[in-house]
Amino acid sequence: MEVFEHLATGFMAAGTLENLLFCLIGTVLGTLIGVLPGIGPIPALAILLPITFGLDPLSSLIMLAGIYYGAQYGGSTTSILVNMPGEASSVVTCIEGHQMARRGRAGAALAIAALGSFFAGCVGTVFIAAFGPPLSAIAQQFNSPDYFALMLLGLVMAIVLAHGSVLKAVAMVLMGLLLGLVGTDINTGLTRYTFGLSGLWEGIDFLPLVLGLFGIVEIVRNLENPPPPRETISTRLRDLWPTRSEMKDAIPAALRGTGLGSILGILPGGGAVLASFASYTLEKKISKNPRKFGTGAVEGVAGPESANNAAAQTSFIPLLTLGIPSNPIMAIMMGAMIIQGIQPGAAVMTTRPDLFWGMVASMWIGNLMLVVINLPMIGIWVKLLSVPYRLLYPAILLFCAIGVYSTSTEPFMMVLMIVFTVFGYVLFKLGCEPAPMVLGFILGPLMEENLRRSLVISRGDPMIFINRPISATLLVATVLMLCLIIFPQFRKTREEAFQEE
Amino acid sequence: MVIKSPQDFGAGVLFILFGAIGLWVGSDLNFGSARNMGPGYFPMIICGLIVLIGLIVMAKSLALEGPPIERIQFRPIAFILLAIAAFGLLIAEVGAVISSILLIMFAAYARRQVNLVETLVFAVCTAAFVVIIFVYALGQPMPVWWGR
Fold it and tell me: Which is nearest to A350 in space by CA: A150, A142, A139, A148?
């Protein structure tokens, strides 16, 4: 079996003492930040990104992946114990998990979330190993028009899944695209939108942009509206094991969640948030006893938690095989890969098999570590919630500043970070969610290049996008998505789904 | 003219401004044609779309009720920006230790009721931690003190 050979290569690469250590550091740091209320995976990755720059590419990617699902995981702990979602994908865990905790089943909820996530992580790893190579073979068939159509679909999906107003999300994506174009035009060598600043010749730096928009604005936001103190539910270790009847409910839900999440993760625009909402809806629909939802239904924890972890893993597939990030988090991962000098895409698998398979293997190792560091040490993580915010935020701010300084000692980078902080602050006051902007920012230059190439091939005829079967299919999907947004019925469900936050 | 949704109105104005600046600054870029896209082709289309959406959002804000713009609190944002600026300007001159302490002190004053002693102790500890982790453990090129 080729898959096992590949996985063996991966485990060899990821299994070195050094890489295991970085995986552990990543998952611990990720959990640490994820547990803190109000800091989701996007700011967590942004804040910790600079730490990984000094490492070699594989170690840094392993650590970043660890941070990502660590943060994801830490978010569910906070949801269950404090009823405060650290991030959007744990919102549904909040609903059922916290109710379970209030009935004295906090330990069981945590254990189910951990085991469900671990199971989903294992399946997700196998999924990537099995589907990565065939998908990357398909990716070889992709041509410029197909890439352009795929990116368009991804952006439209990001708009559908963004919080709040659709129109504003569209504008955010477009503004992101434009910001991505700043710098030297690769085709003509002309500089665009640099305002005569030499610091912008190579484009807007990724790190000051994400740190400003997400890391620092988040701090200002919390300072302006301090989150209300909430009661923490303490749990004892011996209550950790779920009862037999809880297990009986949880296992099928976890299986369904894993399947659903694995598939939704691959789709453009898909990812952890979509998967957890979808799984929750599914569990509620097929339950024989839908009335118990909202009062601490075990399925409502097991399903979404498995789904979001499965999706978190499989959403790496489009990035690693097509070189296209499917959601803002993957956009950050892509930014990190580019900083490391790796252009994500189908070529990675053939030119750097150790990198690709090492990363896949590290996901499984990381998931195992998560279970180990989370279940027995839950008490420590809960303690972390009592660190006062007045000490926390200056430290976070310092890490942001040092992060930017350590990638470039140019004072201009600080100026850029300040500019994006102000920009992000204005967006926050105007009720605009900046996440779709990052996706646009990363995709901007890629979209322009693929549009240009497509139109050169077709000599300016836009029909090329419809004549090719792959791009035509993707465009039809895009149009369907757009119809969904406009269609009032769906719009209402979308608004309701986000209302629950 | 009555603005029914100040938040959306503001967002509309922001989009229009953003798009208009994009159109204006990019106006000297060669547009080219579909067959041979110039450097201005893609940006111009995007800026045009941003302005268009800005107009729609603004028009909607006159017709439909919406949330007001939250009051801007100057203290948090001002001190946070000041903290970053101080750090960025001074680190090359006075080194990581002092600029870290300064950043923490400025940042702490983004809140009211600061406990000066606690903050100072915390700032010194964090600065020490930063030097140990970033300079010694991770080997980041950063001056620890001044005069280098």
Answer: A139
Residue B54, C-beta contacts closer than 8 angstroms, at least 6 positions apart: A171, B11, B12, B13, B14, B15, B16, B17, B18, B19
B chain contacts of residue A185, beta-carbon cutoff 8 Å: 39
Helix (H) or strand (E) holding A282: helix A272-286
The residue extents of the domains of chain B are 6-63, 74-137
* Nearest partner of A172 among A433, A486, A422, judged by Cα: A433
Query: Can you tell me the distance from the alpha carbon of B142 to that of B47, in angstroms, rounded to the nearest whole number?
Result: 40
Q: Which of the residue ranges A170-174, A283-287, A337-341, A483-487 has the most confident prediction, judged by mean pLDDT?
A: A170-174
Cross-strand partners of A183: A192
User: Is A406 within 8 Å of chain B by CB?
Assistant: yes
b/e per residue A303-325 (b: at least 16 CB within 10 A)? bbbbbbbbbbbbbbbbbbbbbbb
CB contact under 8 A, A429 and B69: yes
C-alpha angle A430-A436-A438 in degrees, rounded to nearest 5 = 105
CA angle (A380, A384, A389) in 5-degree steps: 175
Q: How far apart are the first and last CA of chain A?
A: 45
Query: Please, are residues A191 and B43 in contact by the beta-carbon 8 Å criterion?
Result: no
Residue A267 backbone zone (phi > 0: left; psi -120 to 50: alpha; other: beta): beta
Contacts of A188 in chain B (CB under 8 A): 30, 38-39
Contacts of B115 (CB under 8 A, 6+ apart): none
Other beta carbons within 10 angstroms of residue B98's beta carbon come to 17
Among the residue ranges A52-56, A367-371, B64-68, the one predicted with the least confidence is A52-56
* CA pair distance A127, B111, nearest whole angstrom: 48
Q: What is the DSSP letter of A462?
A: T
User: How far is it, in rounded angstroms, from Cα A419 to Cα A200?
Assistant: 13
Q: Decide if the complex's ipTM is over 0.85.
A: yes
Cα A205 from chain centre: 20
Beta strands in A234-277 (DSSP E): none
* CA B13-B72-B104 angle, 5° bins: 120
Closest CB from A51, A397, A413 relative to B107: A397
E strand or H helix at A191: strand A191-192
Count of residues for chain A? 501
Q: Do A460 and B33 touch (CB under 8 A)?
A: yes
What is the arithmetic mean of pLDDT over A72-91? 73
In this structure, of A79-83, A354-358, B81-85, B112-116, the range with the lowest mean pLDDT score is A79-83
A-B contacts (CB, under 8 Å): 184
- CB distance A334 to A206 below 8 Å: no
- Is the model's pLDDT at A84 over the cut of 80? no
A132-141 long-range contacts (CB < 8 A, ≥24 apart) are A132/A317, A132/A320, A132/A321, A132/A349, A132/A356, A132/A360, A133/A2, A133/A6, A133/A349, A135/A317, A135/A321, A135/A322, A136/A320, A136/A321, A136/A322, A136/A346, A136/A349, A138/A321, A139/A321, A139/A322, A139/A345, A139/A346, A140/A346, A141/A470
Helices (H) and strands (E) in chain B, counts: 4, 0
CA distance A163 to chain B (A): 15
H and E: helices and strands count for chain A: 24, 2
Residue pair A75/A89 in contact by the 8 Å Cβ criterion: yes
